[in-house]
Amino acid sequence: MPIKIPDALPARHVLENENVFVIGETRALHQDIRPLRILILNLMPLKIATETHLLRALSNSPLQVEVDFLMTSSHVSKNTPREHLFAFYKVFDEVRSNKYDGMIITGAPVELLDFEEVNYWPELTEIMDWSKTNATSTFHICWGAQAGLFHHFGIKKYPLEKKMFGIFKHTVEQPEEPLMRGFNDLYHAPHSRYTEVKENDILEHPDLVLLSKSKKAGVYMVMSKDRRQVFVTGHSEYDASTLKEEYDRDLAKGLDIAIPDNYFPDDNPENEPLVLWRSHASLLYSNWLNYYVYQATPFQLEQIQ
After folding, report:
1. Catalytic amino acids?
2. 10 Å Cβ neighbour count for 144?
3. What pTM was estimated for this model as a whole?
4. Alpha-carbon gap, residue 283 to 291, rounded angstroms
5. Which of 172, 170, 218 is nearest to 194 (CA)?
């Protein structure tokens, strides 16, 4: 089944060239099936790339998915054309009265700031509070996961001595949980961050469940016990070249950046990166859509509470 996206969205052409099953708005209007409505709050600076990453991850499902993109009104993106934002994005006041089957909150390059120092923090907390009653399940990514854990559960983030950067092995801590169904006992996932949350803080909180972790990268997947909040501290949605692009960008800025762990064959940036996480990423998003959204959401969206 397809993912439904606006006819003119740039990601559509990229995904169609990859043989990803997408469907334009015009064709979708003639189908008698209610799609899952997913709201994506995109806080990443390169929004067009992030759109493609997430739409690719959401497409591997037998469910039709309809996506709305949301941006903050209290922060103006400098890296995405204004024409693109005006064409494809809404602000919170435009969706405040809507209900959604699911919501995704992305990461953002503001990890080294205290949460309260982020200029759109008041707006983000309002949106996160709103998501508890207006979305069946919310999926938080990287800094978005840290922000959600802090706001909803008081879990602090801590600075790392150096950037957690590369592809790391992870173990499944709760294999019986539907989100983890089909996962290998040991699997890979990308990380790119300067801060972390502590495992003990998660384990000691009565309303949180640790689903997956890494010996080197630490906490990876956390879930609220009511299954309505999912927190992923890495970037399973990244494509093959994303870490390379980040590495090249940081080198160009003169930053002291290490080669991403377990990414380039022989740790040689001249070699093409190996993709070790693609199947896990597809499984993660399809499990979330199926077990936490589709099977939990009411058919009448207004019944979400």
Report:
1. 142, 235, 237
2. 24
3. 0.88
4. 12
5. 218
pLDDT of residue 29: 55
Both tokens of 88, joined, read: 């494809």
CATH number of 3-158+195-238+278-299: 3.40.50.880
Answer yes or no: is 163 a known binding residue.
yes
What residue spans define the domains of the chain?
3-158+195-238+278-299
- 129-188, pLDDT tens digit by residue? 999 999 999 999 999 999 999 999 999 999 999 999 999 999 999 999 999 999 999 999
User: Token pair for residue 72?
Assistant: 């903050």
- Burial grade of 278 (CB within 10 A; 0-12, 13-18, 19 or more): middle
Is the CB of residue 186 less than 8 Å from the CB of residue 171?
yes
User: How far, in Å, CA of 15 to CA of 277, rounded?
Assistant: 18
Produce one character per residue of 59-74: b if its CB has 16 or more CB atoms within 10 Å, e if not.
bbbebbbbbbbbbbee
pLDDT at residue 288, rounded to an integer? 96
Give the residue from 224, 229, 209, 216 showing the smallest Cα distance to 190: 216
CA-CA distance, 206 to 24, in Å (whole number)? 44
Digit-coded pLDDT (tens) for 174-213: 999 999 999 999 999 999 999 999 999 999 999 999 999 9
